[in-house]
Sequence to fold (222 residues):
Amino acid sequence: MPSVNPHIITDNGTQYSLGTLDKNIIRYDFKKMLVFLEAKGKMLFGERFRIYKKDQKVLYKLCAYVIGDKVKCAEYGVDLTKGILLAGPVGCGKTSLLTLAPFMVPHQRSYEVVSTRDLVWDYSRTGYKVIEDYGSSGFFCFDDLGVELIGRFYGKECNVMREVLLSRYDLFRQSKRKVKTHATTNLSEEELEEVYGVRVCSRMRELFNWIVFEQTSTDKRK
Ligand SMILES: Nc1ncnc2c1ncn2[C@@H]1O[C@H](COP(=O)(O)OP(=O)(O)O)[C@@H](O)[C@H]1O
Ligand SMILES: [Mg+2]
Fold:
């Protein structure tokens, strides 16, 4: 049964309130959202998980997007009809963050985080169907865009993610309630352009809000 108080989350016996209810409208509190993110991050990724001050800008943008805060999103230049492309250096926490984000809004439809490497691997075993499966419906976050290999099915080469992104773009343009796509990448815009081409990259700008970690964001693997 859907909760009437989706901003109050009970997890592992602890209750987290992400905001307050004001005449049926939830007023989310960003600081409380970060408290929850840290707690949930510790549960999923271990005690070392914490919120870094350096990442605050990225976190605020992401939180505003996740709860659909129109005012804050306008301020941050985030378009609520698009998906998120979380970019930044290796190990800064992109995959972890996009894995955590849906837990803040349990009443919303979530997405599946799919590794681009696995997707291309799947293509190499089963062929074009994979592009259809991920391109023409569903809610996905494509993890690690641009570093996957070229797919090969019975000797036929294919830039699988490029095809998937093109299909997702069509899906996004054609659907009335825009079907969003999310992704993470270690690459810069120029590097992505090299992998997928100028045309696909320009479509990616329509498909995604690019939220970029500071280049100096800590590598949390270390
Ligand atoms: N905020 C954080 N605090 C502590 N450890 C983190 C944090 N974010 C991620 N990690 C850990 O750092 C490693 C890299 O995170 P990951 O999300 O895979 O980075 P990326 O996807 O940017 O390469 C993982 O082991 C993860 O558990
Ligand atoms: Mg990653």
